[in-house]
């Protein structure tokens, strides 16, 4: 079986979540360089969404759960340190978590994903 970065045969909720994870990683990487440089730990945190997106695209349960956990932690972090400028970030992570936990995504994961 060949690995892929995006599986357009999956439900729209999972395809959109995968794309948003990749976009989030790229924007985080650009932001870290614009903010004075990226630390090794910061780069590892940016690699998490990429790994989760790849895992989802290849129908891996670990990828799905990694995406849910990372998004939930990012949402909690945004809420804990909320400022007026973080409203877009809050909406972004909320939408991403909603896409991952949508019933259509969960049913597809139960049926097709494997470890």
Question: Can you give keywords for this protein?
Answer:
115 residues; globular
Topology diagram in text:
Blueprint: H1 12-34, H2 40-57, H3 61-80, H4 87-101, H5 103-112
Q: How large is the share of residues in beta strands?
A: under 5%
Low confidence ranges: none
In whole angstroms, the N-to-C terminal distance is 14 Å
Provide the succession of SSEs: HHHHH
| Overall pLDDT confidence | 89
Number of strands: 0
What is the tally of helical segments? 5
Largest sheet: none
Shape from CA axes? globular
Give the structural class: mainly alpha
Helix content: over 70%
Folded structure, characterized:
Helix 1 runs antiparallel to helix 4 and helix 3 (61-80) packs antiparallel against helix 4 (87-101). The longest helix is centred in the first third of the chain and has 23 residues, at 12-34. The chain is built from five helices and no strands. The model has no long low-confidence stretch (mean pLDDT 89). 75% of the residues lie in helices and 0% in strands. The two termini are 14 Å apart. By secondary structure, it is mostly helical.
Give a quick summary of the entry.
With 115 residues, the chain is an all-alpha fold. The chain contains 5 helices and no strands.
């Amino acid at each position: 079986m060949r690995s892929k970065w995006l599986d357009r045969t999956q439900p729209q909720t999972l395809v959109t979540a995968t794309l948003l994870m990749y976009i989030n990683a790229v924007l985080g990487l650009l932001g870290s360089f614009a903010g004075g440089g990226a630390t090794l730990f910061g780069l590892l945190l940016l690699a998490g969404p990429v790994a989760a997106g790849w895992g989802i695209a290849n129908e891996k349960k670990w990828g799905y759960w990694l995406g849910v956990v990372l998004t939930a932690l990012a949402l909690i972090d945004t809420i804990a340190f909320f400022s007026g400028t973080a409203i877009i970030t809050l909406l972004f992570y909320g939408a991403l978590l909603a896409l991952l936990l949508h019933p259509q995504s969960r049913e597809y994961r139960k049926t097709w994903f494997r470890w």
